Each structure stands twice: as structure tokens, then as C-alpha cells.
Amino acid sequence: MSFLEVDAFVRVVEAGGFRAAAREAGVTASAMSKRVGALETRLGARLLNRTTRQVAPTEDGLAFYERARAAIEDLAEAEAAVGEAQGVARGRIRINSPVDFGRQYLVDPLSEFARTHPRVDLDVSFSDRFVDVVAEGFDVVLRIGDLPDSGLVARRLAPVRRVLLASPDYLERVGRPESADDLAGHEAILYAYDQRGAVDVDGRRVSLTGRHVADNGALIASMARAGLGIAFLPTFLVCEDLRRGDLEIVLPERTGGDLNLHALTAHRKLLTTRVRLLLDHLRSAFGPTPPWERDLDAPGEDAG
Q1: 120 Cβ partners below 8 Å, 6+ apart?
Q2: Treating both helix axes as pointing N-terminal to C-terminal, what angle do 273-286 and 107-116 enclose, rounded to 10 degrees?
Q3: Residues 117, 123, 126, 129: what is their CA dihedral angle, to the nearest 10 degrees?
Q4: Tens of pLDDT along 233-269?
């Protein structure tokens, strides 16, 4: 059985067609079709259902794909291991990060890492859902917040400070809270996945209430800038707003609930050289004082 034939079949399944797979492999669609056809002949089974509109694996094809893909990944891992044994980081790293954090703070460190290690391929996805590190085959997953006991290995990369904040316009209209009790008279913009809105202020657990709810931190920040109420957000989302004075911290130095940025890896997998180097690079890029906290002198912040 030819590796090229198996590789062609896997590429076609993942690309959803011969043309797309051929472009990725740098060959013609005709060559990809011949390789898959030869594989089907060798196996004595139809692996793909072909129509004028789409290509999809048959039941036999899907079963073969799962094993073939795993075998190709094992070969790639073996090749990378040999290269790394010679002192050269190589191979693919699959990375997942929360959307807002990834867009703002992950692109530059990953680009720098890729330039430093040209034989490492980065496969990056941004999503706010809790991905399954093991089942979905991720090497590194970045998460912010409390971590469930999942059997994963968590490495702390940086602290993530959260603050209560509002626009100067809102504070002028409604007044600046001076104590935890004052928050009861204020409108809060709540996070959809945590509508209890609990905040630690002066050592007390205070519940925020409000009419407005959003499922995205950047959207909540925009609503706060528009003067719709007080928000409780991590500083990485609003550091530029604070520097410009578009938002102001309320009850500074009296609010708790800080989080951490962690890198999660599967417990059962030994760290490859490339993943270890990436974790070291991210730890250096973000900590101990992360970039969003550096020189953060927020206009309007006072002693409360």
C-alpha cells in the first residue's frame, strides 16, 4: 500500500473534494483521483461516494479514514521526534484560545515563535467554547478562569486582573460608587454565562443586577463605553479604553476575583520539544507582568 495513496485519500476527505486536496498537496486533481482510485482497487472497496457536487466517504471509507489519519499523524510525530532529537524543533502544534484574547494577544507571540522555529507548523483556532483537549487532538489550549478537575496539566502563564468599570458619562449621570453597598443602585451589564454577576468587594460577595446581558466580553466593553452601566471585565479587554479615559475603574484596589491564564496539555502525553518551547515562549511573552498591564495608568482611577 502506497503512502501517497493513503495520504491522498485522507486529504480528499478532509478537503471535501479532489480539487481542494490537490491544491493543498501541490499536484493535479487528476493525480489525486488516480491515487485514490488505486487505493480502492488495492483494498477492493469503494472508499468515496463521488457526485458532481461533492465527495464523501462511504461507511468503509470513514472507518479507513480514522485509522489512516491516525497512522499519518503517528508518522509525522515520529519524523518530528527524530528531528527534535537532532536539536531542531519540527512538526505541528494544534492550539486553541478564547476568541478575544487570541485576537488581541496571541497573534504576535505565535508569529514570533513561527519565525524562530521555521520547521514548526502552527494550527490555531479561536473559540469561546470549552474544547475537549484530548478528544479533539489539541496540543495546547489556553483558558482563562477557574479550571475543573479534568485530569489535564495546567501551566500558569500570567495573572488576569478583573475590574469594575464604567464610562465617565455614566458615572457623571448616576454617580460613582464609594462602597459595596452603593453597587445596589447601579445598572450592571451582565455576562450571559454568569448572570449572577457576583463580585468580591471589600471582602464581601456582592451580586450585580442589570437589564443588559451579552455573551462576549468585547461586546460588554462596548456597551459600557456607550454608558449602559457598570461592567466587570478583565483588564486585557479594556486596557486601551482605560488608557484613553473612555472607561474608568470604580472601587479600585477594593475588588477581588482575579483569574489566571493557563496553558492546558493532555496529561497522558509527554511534552515534545516544540510544545515545551512554545510554552516557554508564551510564559516569557505574558508573565509575570502581562503586556495589557504594563504602564497601565488608567485616567479617572482614584482612591474611591
Answers
A1: 89, 90, 91, 92, 93, 113, 114, 274, 278
A2: 130
A3: -130
A4: 999 999 999 999 999 999 887 677 788 999 999 865 5
What burial class does residue 264 get, using C-beta atoms within 10 Å of its C-beta: 0-12 exposed, 13-18 middle, 19+ buried?
buried
Whether pLDDT at 7 is above 80: yes
Q: How many residues does the chain have?
A: 304
3 state DSSP class of 4 = helix
Q: Output the pLDDT for position 180.
A: 86
Fold of 3-84: Arc Repressor Mutant, subunit A (1.10.10)
Using an 8 Å Cβ cutoff, are 134 and 273 in contact? no
Report d(CA 36, CA 48) in Å as an integer: 9
Selecting from 3.40.47.10, 3.60.150.10, 3.50.50.60, 3.40.190.10, what CATH number does the domain 88-159+259-286 have? Answer: 3.40.190.10
Give me the torsion for CA of 88, 92, 93, 96, rounded to 10°: 160
Q: Tell me, what amino acid is at 142?
A: L
pLDDT at 209: 86
∠ CA 5-139-278, rounded to 5°? 115
Nearest to 98 by CA among 125, 133, 63, 116: 125
What does DSSP assign to residue 223? Answer: H
For residue 148, pLDDT over 50 is answered with: yes
Q: What average pLDDT does range 126-133 have in this prediction?
A: 84
Residue 155 grid cell: 501551566
> What's the pTM?
0.66
Contact between residue 237 and residue 98 where contact means Cβ atoms under 8 Å apart: no
